[in-house]
Amino acid sequence: MIQITSMTLREIRLPLKEPFRISSGMVTERRIALLELHDASGLVGWSECVAGETPNYSPETIDTAWLAITQWLAPRVIGQDIESPGDVLPLLDRDIRGHNMAKAAIEMGIWGLESIRLGIPLSRLIGGTRKEIEVGISLGIQGSPDALATRVKAALATGYRKVKIKIMPGSDIDFVRAAREAAGPTAPLMADANNAYTLDDADHLTQLDELGLMMIEQPLAWDDLVQHAELQRRLQTPICLDESITSLDRARDMYTLGSGRIVNIKPGRVGGLASSVAIHDFCESNDVPVWCGGMLESGIGRAYNVALASLPNFVKPGDVSPSSRYWERDIVTPEWTMTAQGTMVVPEGAGIGVEVDLDRIEDLTVRHTTIS
Ligand code: OSB
Ligand code: MG
Q1: Mind telling me the catalytic residues?
Q2: FRET label pair with 91: which of 151, 191, 197, 252, CA 20 to 30 Å apart?
Q3: What is the per-residue pLDDT across 237-267, written as a single tens digit (0 to 9) for each?
């Protein structure tokens, strides 16, 4: 049983080492909301809200999440007797539509607290079985096919087990072809369009079928399932859905309609870990592979992704790269690192498995509020 007595919400600013460009926008500095949860027995847990600065990925932003957490979500949880972290999303979902990333920040923080309370690793608490997870990298849109090819080769030489190439009209077929030629015929490459196309582009996109991609992620509208099913019928390359899968129900619909053959699970997008595990389980029983996506998380959000990716049906490398891919210095110790074999070790200790660097967080904080 957990009873939350107060939550402190902070915003930190963390500059990326290099700008990250996708079809719908560019980020140079992350504005990250962190949640510090206190329970009645004196335990402290930390979590991260993955919402971006602008609503170009989902309708949420850090500012809408700030409002949702402080006005509606935190007050609903504080003081309640919570039997199990699995009860949190149903509690937050009742008569509050959407705001999955805001809900997930609270829900995940309670999973983190529960793993501390029980003295077991978060990964084991949620059913994880792997000791190491496979690591991929997501490369933003580059200036030219040659520049991309250089980055792809370097990433593979570093050991990454999957390279995801962001694409958009004007930076697609030629870019992916250059990457394929530089990386060789069997290199694990994929593309992510972040909704940059429509069904009118179906013939154009079939050119990707010759380039041996593991999958193409979310080519069509952010909330679509029906048109993706039509496109999948015309493409040999498997479609992987990201933005469109916001719940277990949407994953079921994807399967029923044939909108895609692979799912990218991001706990923030689906309302937290319980929903992520439910989608994982549904996909596992229907032979749909899943992998863990990323939202340029700090070391705190990354801890939850690593734990999730340790579940058995996470059979493709995740966008869960080491801290040094994103930041000069992370906000946790130790930082997240990648082995020479392109894996990340799942922590064995109780809780999220890394220490939060409170001094550094206080230095980076631009606003904070406590709800109790
Ligand atoms: O579509 O997967 C995406 C980052 C921000 C918004 C959307 C996406 C991404 C990434 C980053 O691809 C993956 C990472 O965290 O390394
Ligand atoms: Mg994506």
Answers
A1: 166, 266
A2: 252
A3: 999 999 999 999 999 999 999 999 999 999 9
